[in-house]
């Protein structure tokens, strides 16, 4: 069974950067199906960045131009580079598939807190 482990979150000030990592283990599947989600307190989980077919990427309007998703197939790891962080980016961040196969078991997520 695939296990997803997110890491790299923290408490930062507005304008700072963080790099999140998502390590996938337990099975072999294409990282091209993966994306990053986030869930803020009292809000629904939202998809913020993902790989589209053909290896391209797509982003929620709220993070476009500030966040970058990337992957290292050799390490079975997906990354999320987050720049110019804003207080509204505060959330628990998760990785999971976005299409093609059912959701994998959700990891514990990584908390990102941005202070103003």
Verbal overview:
This protein has 116 residues and is mainly beta. The protein has strands at residues 3-7, 10-13, 18-25, 34-39, 46-51, 57-59, 67-72, 77-82, 91-97, 110-115. The strands form two sheets. It has a six-stranded mixed beta sheet, with no helix packed on it. A four-stranded antiparallel beta sheet has the order 1-3-8-7, with no helix packed on it. A hairpin with a 6-residue loop joins strand 4 (34-39) and strand 5.
Number of helices: 0
Number of strands: 10
Helices and strands, in order, run as EEEEEEEEEE
Average pLDDT reading: 94
First and last CA, distance: 40 Å
> If strands are numbered along the chain, what order do they take across the biggest sheet?
2-10-9-4-5-6
Secondary-structure content class: mainly beta
For the sheet with most strands, the description reads: 6 strands, mixed
**Fraction of residues in H or I helices:** under 10%
Q: Indicate the low-confidence ranges by residue numbers.
A: none
As a whole number of angstroms, the C-alpha radius of gyration is: 13 Å
**Beta-strand content estimate:** over 45%
Give a short synopsis of this structure.
With 116 residues, this protein is an all-beta fold. Helices cover 0% and strands 49% of the residues. The chain has strands spanning 3-7, 10-13, 18-25, 34-39, 46-51, 57-59, 67-72, 77-82, 91-97, 110-115.
């Amino acid at each position: 069974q695939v296990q997803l482990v997110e890491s790299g979150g923290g408490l930062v000030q507005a304008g700072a950067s963080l790099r999140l990592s998502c390590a996938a283990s337990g099975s072999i599947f294409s990282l091209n199906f993966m994306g990053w989600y986030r869930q803020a307190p009292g809000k629904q989980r939202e998809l913020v960045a993902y790989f589209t077919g053909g290896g391209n990427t797509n982003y929620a309007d709220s993070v476009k131009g500030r966040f970058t998703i990337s992957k290292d197939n050799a390490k079975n790891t997906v990354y999320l580079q987050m720049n110019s962080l804003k207080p509204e980016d505060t959330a628990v961040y998760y990785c999971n598939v976005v299409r093609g196969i059912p959701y994998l078991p959700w990891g514990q997520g990584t908390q990102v807190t941005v202070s103003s």
